[in-house]
Amino acid sequence: MAFIEEKICERDYRTLGLECGAEPEKVKQAYRELAKRWHPDRFQQQTPLECHRAEEKFKEITAAYRRISKTWKDRESVGAETRKARETPRPTAPPRKEPVSRKPAARRPSPAGADIGLRQFLGIRFKHMPPSWHSKSAAVVAALAVLAAALIMLPFPDWFDLDDSPPSRTVQPQDSHRLVTRPPGEPSPRSDPVPEPPPSPGPAPDGTSDGTYYTLGSTQAEVLRIQGAPSRTQGQTWVYGLADIQFKDGRLWRYNNFDGSLKIRLTPTTSTEGDPPAFFTLGSTQNDVLLVQGTPTQIGANKWHYGFSEIRFKDGRVEEYNNFFGNLKIRLVPSESPNPTAKKGYFTIGSSRDEVLSLQGTPTVIQGNTWYYQSSYITFRDGRVQFAISLDGNLFFLPSEETTEKSDSHG
Questions:
Q1: pLDDT tens across 212-245, in order?
Q2: Is 272 contained in some domain?
Q3: What DSSP element (H or E) covers 145?
Q4: How far is the C-alpha of 226 from the C-alpha of 22, rounded, in Å?
Q5: Which of 13, 106, 251, 391 has its CA at a distance of 20 to 30 angstroms from the CA of residue 382?
Q6: Which of helix, strand or coil describes residue 376?
Q7: What pLDDT, on the 0 to 100 scale, is given for residue 349?
Q8: CB neighbour list of residue 214: distance below 8 Å, 6 or more residues apart
Q9: Is residue 63 part of a domain?
Q10: What is the pLDDT of residue 386?
Q11: Which of 183, 174, 199, 179 is nearest to 191 (CA)?
Q12: SS3 301
């Protein structure tokens, strides 16, 4: 266990730019700042190499924060017990009365010498008592002492309580709401009350077969029945650990299943006979993508994520994508065949997209008019190559002047 703590201190705290054992609030603040700085969405317009670097950095930061936050659970439970013990009021004894100093009485011989110590302790003087009473004084004093001891041992009545503080009250939540707590390590924004899930499973939600999952358009009641109560809520967003669900007009609209904990599934509205297609391409519909890729990890505005890969739609059809990690089953094929450029073994300024595809194959990333092959990229204008940069040396591209010299040499 000591090795794990040391490993976390040396690697994870350093990843967040903090010293080992930093306070949770500093860890949360550092994670929020770094996650915002290195989120892959901020690097969509950069080169694929920079996008890849940002994604790796974001994964490293997230993993470090998750490992550190796991160590807070035991510490918070121990700290809560310690604070409870400290905050528990201790009973205070009443102020002690100082005995009134008085001049001790002179000793006199007495036939009842056995009880003289008790008489002096109780402050009883027998100066004016007849000598015949002295023999009976010991029994009387002893009886009084026993009675006083019995009174002391009796419990104090309620009206004798020395604590003037008002009695504590336990505030119960309203019956129509449930108090939602958040797990250790999570931030604490304003949390709205969440209705209780239905007591019985009930019928399966619309669009599901057995009620074990939900989908886009499911109601809040359906999500509660299948997923359970969220860790916290904020407006129309429900948070489950590192995943979240967004509602619009009471229906599931968007989601982010970052850690795979959501029981959500998207099924195609139409299916093909026989085996599903092996790939999708530019212009494919969302239903085509579902047939090939299955349920996305995250759905946003016109954007689907599969892990760190991304597909962008326009009017419901694939327009752009980022397949840097190679987990998208996408393929682009030339629309014209045969192609004279393929025989040459290169493309140049003015070549068409089909000519590039016949030599280079499917791009790694397509953003607007730019095609990326790993870190190398090609920019098109009106469907023709405008310029190309082969950073990785993997493009079959020749500038115009080199193609001229090559043609002359062959001529």
A1: 999 999 999 999 999 999 999 999 999 998 899 9
A2: no
A3: helix 134-153
A4: 38
A5: 391
A6: strand
A7: 93
A8: 205, 207, 208, 222, 223, 226, 227, 252, 263, 264, 265
A9: yes
A10: 93
A11: 179
A12: coil
- Whether the ω angle into residue 338 lies within 30 degrees of 0, i.e. cis, is yes
Task: Read off the tokens for 276.
Answer: 């599903």
User: What is the per-residue pLDDT across 103-127, written as a single tens digit (0 to 9) for each?
Assistant: 555 555 544 444 444 445 445 444 4
Residue 312 in contact with residue 363, Cβ under 8 Å? no
Full strand arrangement of the beta sheet holding 309-314: 232-234, 237-240, 243-248, 251-256, 298-300, 303-306, 309-314, 317-322, 365-367, 370-373, 376-381, 384-389
CA 192 to chain centroid = 17
Token pair 């041992």 in the structure block, residue? 153
**pTM of the shown model:** 0.51
Structural domain boundaries enclosing 352 = 340-410
Tens-place pLDDT, residues 146-166: 566 555 444 444 333 434 444
Burial 298-320 (b: 16+ CB within 10 A, else e): bbeeebbbbebbbbbbeeeebeb
* CATH (domain of 38): 1.10.287.110
* Torsion over CA: 373, 376, 381, 387 (sign): negative
Q: Where are the alpha helices (DSSP H) in 88-115?
A: none
- Asked whether residue 180 is assigned to any structural domain, the reply reads no
